[in-house]
Backbone:
C-alpha cells in the first residue's frame, strides 16, 4: 500500500471521527480537509479549490438559502394549519395529507426542514388523540426523502450528477426532468405506509389527552421543571453579589424564579438585584447544577418546600412567546428591553432558527420567528 493511499485513508478516518464526535463544526472540518489534502501532497492546490467553482456547490447553497428564507418568512405555518385542520385526528388522513405536503415542500427546500415544520404539530396530535407516534412520524420522514426526487435541485446527489454531466460535455437535465419518476416514488411510498404501516411500524401510543398544556410545553422543550428553595445566610458567598455576577445562567444554567425578602415576593429578579442575608430563593434547573451552585456559594438547599412557596406555586408557569413580523422588539436583545425588570418573567430557552440556546442569551438580538420560553 503506497504512502498516498495510507494518508488518504488517514484523512478520511479523521474526518469521519470529527463528523461523528461533533468536536468541530461541520464547515470547519470541511475547510480543514480542503487544506490538508494539498498540504499532504494528495491533490494539487488548484484541484483542492476547484469545488468552490462547481455549479453543484452553488446550487446546494442556493437551495439551503431558499429553504431557510421560506422557513423564516412564516408562510409555511399558514400552509400547515389548514392541512392539519382538514386531516383532523384520523390516522389515514394525517398520514396521506401531511406526507403529500411534506413531499411537495421538500422538492424545493431541505427535506429536514420540510419534515421539521410538521413535527411539533404531529407530536401534539399524537399525545392528544393517543395515535401511535411512529405511524405518524415515520411516513412523514420517508415522504420528505422521496419528495427530494421531484426536482433536480432538491437532492444533493441529483445536483452533483447534473454537474458531472455538464462537465463531461453532455446535456444536463432540466428542473422537472425527474418529476414523473419522483412523483411515482412519492405516491408509492405514501400508499405503502397507508396499507402496510400498521403492520410494519411499531404501535407505541402517544400520551393520551390527559396531558396538561403546561406538561405538554415541558415535554416539548425538555424543560427542567423541578424547583428548589434555599435561604441566603450571613456566611454565604452570595451576599453582596448581583444575580448576574453569580453566573446563574452563564455558569450553571440555573434560573432564579423568585426572590422573597421581608415577606415581599419578587418574580424573576432583575439581573442587577443584589443578594442579601435572609433572602429566600426559588431556583429552577437540573438538580446537579443547582447542587453545584449551592456548594460553590455555601448555601444549603431546603429539604422541604416552605409554606410561603406552597401557596404561591400555583400562580406561575411556562409560556411560549414568538417574535411576530414587524414586532418592535425585533433586532433587540432581552437586555435592551429589560424582560425581567419590565415584565417580571424569567427567560428559560431561546430557539433562534434551528439553534436552541438554554444558557445566557441576554445580549443576542431577537429575530422574527424566534421562539422564547419564559417562566413567570
Residues:
Amino acid at each position: 500500500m503506497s504512502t498516498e493511499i495510507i494518508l488518504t485513508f488517514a484523512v478520511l478516518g479523521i474526518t469521519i471521527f470529527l463528523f461523528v464526535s461533533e468536536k468541530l463544526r461541520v464547515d470547519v472540518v470541511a475547510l480543514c480537509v480542503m487544506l490538508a489534502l494539498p498540504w499532504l501532497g494528495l491533490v494539487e492546490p488548484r484541484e483542492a479549490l476547484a469545488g468552490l467553482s462547481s455549479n453543484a456547490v452553488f446550487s446546494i447553497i442556493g437551495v439551503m438559502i431558499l429553504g431557510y428564507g421560506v422557513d423564516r418568512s412564516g408562510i409555511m405555518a399558514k400552509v400547515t394549519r389548514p392541512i392539519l385542520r382538514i386531516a383532523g385526528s384520523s390516522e389515514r388522513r394525517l398520514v396521506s395529507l401531511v406526507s403529500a405536503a411534506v413531499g411537495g415542500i421538500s422538492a424545493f427546500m431541505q427535506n429536514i426542514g420540510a419534515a421539521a415544520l410538521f413535527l411539533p404539530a404531529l407530536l401534539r396530535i399524537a399525545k392528544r388523540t393517543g395515535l401511535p407516534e411512529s405511524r405518524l412520524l415515520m411516513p412523514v420522514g420517508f415522504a420528505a426523502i422521496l419528495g427530494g426526487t421531484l426536482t433536480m435541485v432538491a437532492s444533493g446527489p441529483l445536483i452533483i450528477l447534473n454537474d458531472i454531466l455538464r462537465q463531461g460535455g453532455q446535456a444536463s437535465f432540466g428542473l422537472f426532468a425527474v418529476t414523473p419518476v419522483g412523483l411515482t416514488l412519492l405516491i408509492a411510498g405514501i400508499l405503502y405506509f397507508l396499507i402496510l404501516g400498521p403492520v410494519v411500524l411499531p404501535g407505541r401510543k402517544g400520551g393520551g389527552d390527559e396531558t396538561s398544556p403546561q406538561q405538554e410545553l415541558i415535554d416539548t422543550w425538555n424543560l427542567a421543571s423541578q424547583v428548589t428553595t434555599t435561604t441566603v445566610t450571613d456566611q454565604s458567598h452570595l451576599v453582596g453579589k448581583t444575580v448576574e455576577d453569580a453566573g446563574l445562567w452563564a455558569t450553571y444554567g440555573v434560573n432564579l424564579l423568585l426572590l422573597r425578602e421581608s415577606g415581599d415576593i419578587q418574580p424573576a429578579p432583575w439581573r442587577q438585584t443584589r443578594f442579601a442575608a435572609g433572602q429566600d430563593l426559588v431556583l429552577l434547573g437540573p438538580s446537579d447544577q443547582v447542587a453545584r451552585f449551592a456548594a460553590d456559594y455555601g448555601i444549603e438547599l431546603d429539604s422541604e418546600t416552605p409554606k410561603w412557596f406552597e401557596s404561591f406555586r400555583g400562580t406561575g408557569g411556562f409560556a411560549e412567546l414568538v417574535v411576530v413580523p414587524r414586532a418592535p422588539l425585533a433586532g433587540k436583545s432581552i437586555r435592551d428591553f429589560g424582560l425581567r425588570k419590565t415584565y417580571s418573567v424569567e427567560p428559560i430557552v431561546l430557539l433562534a432558527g434551528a439553534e436552541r440556546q438554554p444558557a445566557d442569551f441576554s445580549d443576542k438580538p431577537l429575530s422574527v420567528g424566534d421562539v422564547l420560553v419564559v417562566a413567570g
Notes: Confidence is low (pLDDT under 50) at residues 206-210. The radius of gyration is 26 Å. Residues 87 and 93 are 5 Å apart (CA to CA). The first strand starts at residue 227 and ends at 231.
